[in-house]
Amino acid sequence: FHVKYATADGTQYEQTFTLHVTISDRKDPNPSPTPVPTPEPTPKPIPQPKVIVSQYEVTPETVTAGEEFDVSFTLKNTSDRVNVQNLKITLKPEGTDLIMAEQSNTRYLKSLGKGKSKKFSFHMKARQDAQPKPQKLIISLEYEDDKATAISGSEEMTVQVKQPIRIEFDSPNIPASVNAGDTFPINLNVFNMGRGMINNVMCKVEAPGLIPEGNSFLGHMEPGSSKTAEIFVFVGTKNMSSSDEGETTETDADGEKYGKVSGIILVSYEDEFGQE
């Protein structure tokens, strides 16, 4: 505080006074430890329910191109705590070789309880020109949990498709008459008329008195291809035959040795799945 004043005789004086004020924050300079509050437990999040394909079946197991077939599968709600609702199931082939044989490719289920399963089926068809290979089907799933949260997912199935085998061959040119001791060739043109590969094509002659020097192996044949089998045949007697090991034996020593004989040319092959 600064003060100015004068005495009675007019003398001027000045004087200063200093005051001190202490400002406190009202906190104890030596406080006791404050207990730390226990945090509230955080609730564990509940995982979203998952709907999966637990099993599926294709009837017939291998589908031939141009034919119809049935697909059935079971959907399971894997959650043991949450129900699902408004389940929409859509079945779509990955390519264009498989098509629906019914009007709709969609199913609807109002609810699926926790841990519950439900079976669905669809009727389909393989196109005539379908590729002979495993074909994929995709199952799209859309549903909600018990809080109406939208969830989506997809599953895959496989359908094994094969093309029908179509083998044709010319009539072989066989001499009308041959003499014992002769050897002559039999030629057979084999045609793969189907859309699938055929494998291990083999031609063999089976006839009494006609002893082939061996079988004709044509191997693999692509769709639309042809190959010629050539088998050289030794002419014996009617009571002679050859074993699979190439040994020649007489089936009946007292039997007729000459005359008309008949037999077969056997063509064997395997499809793409090893079916003979």
Strand and helix order: EEEEEEEEEEEEEEEEEEEE
Lateral arrangement of strands in the main beta sheet: 4-11-10-6-8
The pLDDT mean sits at 90
Question: Taking Cα atoms only, what radius of gyration do you get, to the nearest Å?
Answer: 46 Å
Sheet having the most strands: 5 strands, mixed
**Helix/strand-derived class?**
mainly beta
Cα(first) to Cα(last) distance is 121 Å
General shape:
rod-shaped
- Uncertain segments: none
The tally of strands reads: 20
Q: Please report which band the strand proportion falls in: under 5%, 5-15%, 15-25%, 25-35%, 35-45% or over 45%.
A: over 45%
Helix residue percentage: under 10%
- Given the structure, what is the number of helices? 0
Descriptors:
4-stranded antiparallel sheet, 5-stranded mixed sheet, 20 strands, 276 residues, mainly beta, rod-shaped, single chain, 51% strand
List the helices and strands and how they pair.
Layout: E1 2-6, E2 12-16, E3 51-59, E4 62-64, E5 68-77, E6 84-93, E7 98-100, E8 106-112, E9 117-126, E10 134-144, E11 150-162, E12 167-169, E13 183-192, E14 198-206, E15 210-212, E16 216-221, E17 226-235, E18 240-242, E19 248-250, E20 264-270
Architecture overview:
- The protein is mainly β and 276 residues long.
- Helices cover 0% and strands 51% of the residues.
- The chain is built from no helices and 20 strands.
- Strands 4-11-10-6-8 form a five-stranded mixed beta sheet, with no helix packed on it.
- Strand 1 (2-6) and strand 2 form a beta hairpin.
- It is rod-shaped.
- It starts with a strand and ends in a 6-residue tail after the last strand.
- The model has no long low-confidence stretch (mean pLDDT 90).
